[in-house]
Amino acid sequence: MSNSNYIKIEQLFRLTESEYNMMNTISGNLLFACGDKRAFAVTSCHDGDGKSTIALRLAYSLAKEGYRVVFTDADFCGSSPFDCSADESEDDTAKNCTGYLNGECKLSDIVYTTDVSNLYIIPRTKFNDNSAPTASDFRCLPSVNTISLSALKNALAQAYDYVIFDTPSAEKTIDAAKIASVCDGIVFVVRYGSTRKKDIAEVVGQLEKSGKPVLGFVINQVKFDRIISRKRYRFPKKTFIGRIFRRNSGGNYV
Amino acid sequence: MNGNENENSAKTNNMNPSSVCLTDILYRLLDKIIFIVISAVVGAVFVGVLDNPTSYSYYSSTSKIYVTCNDGNTSSFQNLSVADDLIGDCIAAFSNLELHENVIERLDLPYSPRELSGMISVNNIDGTHILSITVTVGTTADEARLLAAAYAEASGDFFKEKFNIGEISVFEKASEPSTSNVVSGGISPALGVFAGIILSCAVIIFSAMLDDRIYTPEDITRVWNAEVLGIMCKPKEVRSPKIGKRKK
Predict the structure, then answer these.
(1) Greater confidence, A156 or B91?
(2) Which of A221, B42, B78, B204 reaches 20 to 30 Å from A69, CA-CA?
């Protein structure tokens, strides 16, 4: 692993105490549910459900507990939380997940250390600029090769305690199921008040074909301004008195 | 493929995915309480605009006649005995249309005999030979008084002719009409409030039953045999998502 592979990501994790507690709950429950499983695919029905955010925070939370975690950005179609192309040269463009899957670089070239101890990142290629992708962009995208992915996962599983794959949304491509098939389990992100049961049933049905279990669901972007949320998740209403005496309390679903 | 993994997989429960918990419905109703209140107010206003309550005034006047059988040939005792029997006949005579026609002719009224018969009521004051004729009209107080007086006179003539009895004396002239106001035809705004609440609740419950989006962990665990690992709140402020910088 070269020393030049370094990303500053600590700024991504400026969580409130409530958010931090929620993330700890998710990672704790995942550790209880996963047993000896070490590679997880994080997916969702639609884009924008927050799977990248959850996957990254999950990796961060596990890393904070002392596990060596590698986050693999395998969402080749969606947006990426990292911007690695800002000052990268032509030479470095292949040093990412796509390059590895295409056989253009070694594993050590694509794993980035971060300013969060025990957390490692494998970025993926991204579209140029902020313009809409063109047909040529799509031709550049790799067809997910399960053999390469399996080799990547095995290599990572040997070197790290936990491997987290951020996959594309399952409704868009079959890639999520392909990536899930090389992992040990699936974490399914649903968006509060947006994801429909019908869509989840379709996607879970498809993911089950990969033969890997859905370890659990994460409900993302919960709005606590609704009574149903406050009662269900025991999140107190933010009254003036509540702000004084119950600051940062509640909001934990265990 | 590992068999154990398949056993752990998120299997679909047998429960109906569209089933809605009553508690959830209650919470949804509470969430939409402002919508319910607005619907109630709109309902009340709507009823208030559409409603045209009508006030009816009724005027009643009563005259009383004294029925005897004073033909000049019999004793007073006999007269009273015959009059006892006549009271019932006199009351029954008020159903005779000829009597009403007589009144119409006297006052030149625009009513039919049947209409008039519906306006009067005749009662015998217990133990007496006095008939109380009450006329109730919805037009004017004066008309009620005139009608009561006309009936007292016309009935005297009518009985004398039909029953062959002596003079019928007017015991009490038509009284000053009493007025009673009855408001009818109006719908209470409370009904509008009630209808607004019921309609809005029905809409909320119906939409809740059709809504299959995920709100609670139970929405997931009811349908799939999978655990909910946790929740994450909606971020309040949008942070710059692309802040990673690589050190050269």
Answers:
(1) A156
(2) A221
Pairing assessment for the beta strands A162-166 and A69-73 based on DSSP bridges: parallel
**Residues B57/B138, Cβ–Cβ less than 8 Å:** yes
Structure tokens given for A66? 């002392």
Chain B contacts of A187, Cβ < 8 Å? 229
Q: Measured between CB atoms, which of A6, A193, A208 is closest to B213?
A: A193
Which residues on chain B are in Cβ contact (under 8 Å) with A48? Answer: none
DSSP conformation class of A240? H
User: Torsions phi, psi of A245, nearest 5?
Assistant: -95, -25
Q: Is the ipTM above a cut-off of 0.90? A: no
Residue position matching structure tokens 């007017």: B170
Amino acid at B226: A
Nearest to B229 among A30, A211, A231 (CB): A30
Alpha-carbon distance B18 to B25, whole Å? 13
How far apart, in whole angstroms, are the C-alpha atoms of residue A216 and residue B8? 10
pLDDT tens digits, A81-104: 555 444 444 445 556 677 777 777
Could you give the CA distance from residue A49 to residue A43 in angstroms, rounded to a whole number? 9
Give the integer Cα–Cα distance in Å for A185 and A206. 14
Beta-carbon separation of B233 and A86 below 8 A? no
Nearest C-alpha neighbor of B246 from the set A55, A196, A3: A3
A-to-B residue pairs, Cβ atoms closer than 8 angstroms: 191
Q: Do B213 and A194 touch (CB under 8 A)?
A: yes
Q: Output B238 or A31, whichever has higher pLDDT.
A: A31
Closest by CA position to B168, among listed B183, B182, B157 = B157
The answer to whether A82 contacts B224, with C-beta atoms less than 8 Å apart, is no
- B224 contacts A200? CB cut-off 8 A: yes
Token code pair at residue B82: 């015959």
Query: CB–CB of A4 and B242 under 8 A?
Result: no
CA distance A173 to B125: 97
pLDDT digits (tens, 9 = 90+) for B115-150: 888 888 888 877 777 888 888 887 888 888 888 888
A129: left (phi over 0), alpha (psi -120 to 50) or beta: left
Contact A8 B244 (CB under 8 A): yes
- A119 CA to chain B: closest CA distance, Å? 14
How close B201 comes to chain A (CA, Å)? 16
- Tens-place pLDDT, residues A13-34: 778 888 888 888 999 999 998 8
Degrees, nearest 5: CA angle B108-B114-B120: 80
**Mean pLDDT lowest for which of A51-55, A246-250, B15-19, B199-203?**
A246-250
For residue B196, the distance in angstroms to the closest alpha carbon of chain A comes to: 22
Any A CB within 8 A of B237 CB: no
